[in-house]
Amino acid sequence: MPETGDVERAFRRESGRAVASLVRFFGDIDLAEEAVQDAFVVALQTWPATGLPPSPAGWIITTARNRGLDRVRRESSRTGREAEAVRLQEARGTGPDPQDVGPVADDSLRLIFTCCHPALAPSAQVALTLRLVAGLQTPEIAKAFLVPEPTMAQRLVRAKHKIRAANIPYRVPRDAELPDRLPPVLAVVYLVFNEGYLPSSGDELVRAQLCAEAIRLARLLVELLPDEPEVHGLLALLLLVESRRAARADGAGRLVRLAEQDRSQWDASMIAEGQTLVRGCLRRNQPGPYQIQAAIAAVHSDAPTAADTDWSQIVALYDQLLALTPSPVVALNRAVAVAEVEGPAVALGLVDGLAGLDGYHLWHAVRGDLLERVGRPDDAAAAFAAALERTDNGAERDLLRARRSVL
Amino acid sequence: MPQYLLSVHMVEGEPSPPEDVVQDMYAAVDRFNAKVQEAGVWVFAGGLHPADTATVVDNTKGGDPIVTDGPFSEAKEQIGGFWIVEVADLDDALKWATEASAACQGKVEVRPFQSE
Predict the structure, then answer these.
(1) What's the CA gap between A250 and A88, in Å, rounded?
(2) Candidate from A5-14, A20-29, A288-297, B11-20 with smallest mean pLDDT
(3) If I label A102, which of A22, A160, A296, B103 is the partner at 20 to 30 A Cα–Cα?
(4) Under an 8 A CB cutoff, do B90 and A169 touch?
(5) By the 8 A CB rule, do A237 and A294 touch?
(6) Separation in Å, CA of B100 to nearest CA in chain A
(7) Residue A173 has what DSSP assignment?
(8) CB pair distance less than 8 Å for A167 and B89
(9) How confident is the model at residue A273 (pLDDT cuts 50, 70, 90)?
(10) Are A115 and A181 in contact, with CB atoms under 8 Å apart?
C-alpha cells in the first residue's frame, strides 16, 4: 500500500495536467488550484488504504472538479460569471474528460502559453509556469531564483490576479502569433528541466518527473511548431542531457562528474534521437542558443570515452554560443573546455577574469578543479570550501567535500 | 464582455510635431476610430485638451471643497485621450491598442475595467 511519500510523488506527477484541465473547466486559476489541493487532501486520506488509482490523473481531475463545484456552490462571493459558466457546463454535462487529451489540444500547452503571456513580466512567466504546470511549491521556486519566499509568493499572487483582472485568455496563440510567443515558453521549459535535473536544494539528486514533463512539453512544441529550429534544438538538448541520467549518480546516489561517468549507462536511444535532431538543425543552418548547446551535448555523446572527447570542437561551439549569448556563465563553461585544449593554467586565467560570479557555486568549483590541476592544493581547498557555502544541494555538497578531502 | 480603457499618454514639454504630421495623425486616428466602430467594439472615445486646462476638486475633508488649477499629477507624462472598447479578452484589446498607438503616435496603456 502506498505511503504518504508515494502519494505525494504520484500526485505531484499528475497535478500539473489536472490544474491545466481544470483551468479550462472553471475558467479560474485560483479555483482550479484550490480544487486540486482539495483533491490532494482526499488522496492522502484514501490512497494509502485503497492503493493508487489506475489513472491518477483521471482520479484527480474528477475529484478536483467535484470539489471545485462544491466550492463554487458554497462561496457566494464568487463572481456571477464563473458560477454561471460552471452551471452551464454542469447542465450540458460537459467537462474535462480525463482521457481526452490530444497532442495539440493539450491543456498543458494552453496553460504554458497563458503563463508565458507577454502581458506578464518574464519573472512572473517563469514562476507561474513552474507553479501551475510543473507543480513546484513556492519555496522551491524561490530557491531556484534566489529570491525570498514572500517575494516569490507575492509575484505569483500578482500574476494570477492580472490574468484574472485583465482577462488574459486561456488558449494556444494563433499561428501568426506563435513565433513571437515562443521564446519565453522555451526559456521556461528549459528552466523546468534544469530544476528537475539538478534541484536547487534538498538531497534528491534528480527529480525525474520534472525532466519528463519538460521533455513532454518540448515534444509537444516540436509537433506544434515543426519549422522553428530552436524548438528542435531545445528538445535535442534535453534528450541528450537526460540520456546521462543513469550514469550521473552512483549506487549510493552520489554525483558522478561527466569525465568519470560509465558511458555504457547512457541511454542510447535518447542519444540517437538527440543527435538526429542536431543534424537536422545543422542542415537548416539557422543557429540559435539551444541548438548550439545541443550540438555541444552531442559532441560529448559522440565520445565513447571521456578521453575521446573532441574538445576543440566544443570550444569552437562555445565561441559561437558566446557570440550569440554573451554571459559570464557561458564564458565559464567555455573555459572548462579550454582547459582540455590549452591546459588548466590558461583556463584559470580566463576564469579568474570573469566578473560577477562570486555567488555562483560552480565558478568556485571550477576554480577549485583548475587550481588543483596547476598544483595549488591550498587555494583549491579554499575554492571548494567557497563552493560548499554557496549550494544547498546534498549531492553536490558531497561531491565538493570529497574533492576537498583528497587535497 | 470585458471593457478596457486604452489611454494615450504624452510627455508634456516635448516639441509638437510639424503641422502636416499632426494632420496625418488626425487622419490616421479618424480611420482607426471608424474601424473600431465598424467592428462593433466602440464604447466611447475622445481627445483631451492639454493638462494645463484641467482643474482638480478635493472634497475629501469636511468643510469647503478645495478647487485647484492644473492636473492631478505633477508628472510630465499626462493623459491626452482615450478609447473605451468592449472586446472578448486582453489579446483583442492589445491588438486594438497596437493600431491605436501607431495611429496617434503615442504609448497606449491598456487597463481593464472592474466588472459589475
Answers:
(1) 55
(2) A5-14
(3) A160
(4) yes
(5) yes
(6) 17
(7) P
(8) yes
(9) very high
(10) no
Q: How far is C-alpha A4 from the geometric centre of its chain's CA atoms?
A: 25
Asked if pLDDT for residue A264 goes beyond 70, the answer is yes
HEC string for chain B: CCEEEEEEEEECCCCCCCHHHHHHHHHHHHHHHHHHHHCCCEEEEEECCCHHHCEEEECCCCCCCEEEECCCCCCCEEEEEEEEEECCCHHHHHHHHHHHHHHHCCEEEEEECCCC
Q: How open is the CA angle A105-A110-A113, to the nearest 5 degrees?
A: 135
Q: Which of A79, A81, A119 sits opposite B90 (nearest CB)?
A: A119
In terms of Cα–Cα distance, which of A366, A360, A361 is closest to A337?
Answer: A366
Q: Is A337 exposed, middle or buried (0-12, 13-18, 19+ CB in 10 A)?
A: buried
Distance CA A12, CA B59 (A): 55
Among A11, A4, A73, which Cα is nearest to A38's? A11
- State the Cα angle at A127 between A122 and A133, rounded to 5°: 115
* pLDDT over 70 at A203, yes or no: no
- Count of positions (residues) in chain A: 407
* A81, A165, A169 member nearest B112 (Cβ): A165
Task: Please tell me the number of Cα atoms within 13 Å of A298 on its side-chain side.
Answer: 24
Q: Give the span between the Cα atoms of A384 and A403, in whole angstroms.
A: 8
Q: How many whole angstroms separate alpha carbon A395 and alpha carbon A93? A: 50
| Average pLDDT of chain A to the nearest whole number | 86
Among A79, A114, A167, A170, the strongest candidate for a mutation testing the B interface, having the largest count of B CBs within 10 A, is A167
Across the interface, do B115 and A81 touch by the CB < 8 Å criterion?
yes
Whole-angstrom Cα Rg for chain B: 16
What is the chain B residue with the closest CA to A177? B91
**Considering only alpha carbons, which residue of chain B is nearest residue A117?**
B91
Distances (CA, A) of A329 to A147, A168, A244, A354, A367: 19, 35, 22, 9, 13
ipTM of the complex, rounded to two decimals: 0.88
Chain A positions in Cβ-Cβ contact with residue B6 (cut-off 8 Å): none
Grid coordinates given for A132: 501551475
Tell me how close the Cα of A236 comes to any Cα of chain B, in angstroms: 32
pTM recorded for the entire structure: 0.71
Locate cell 521533455: which residue? A215
Distance from C-alpha of B68 to C-alpha of A58, rounded to nearest angstrom: 63
CB A58 within 8 A of CB A99: yes
Bridge partner list, B57: B67
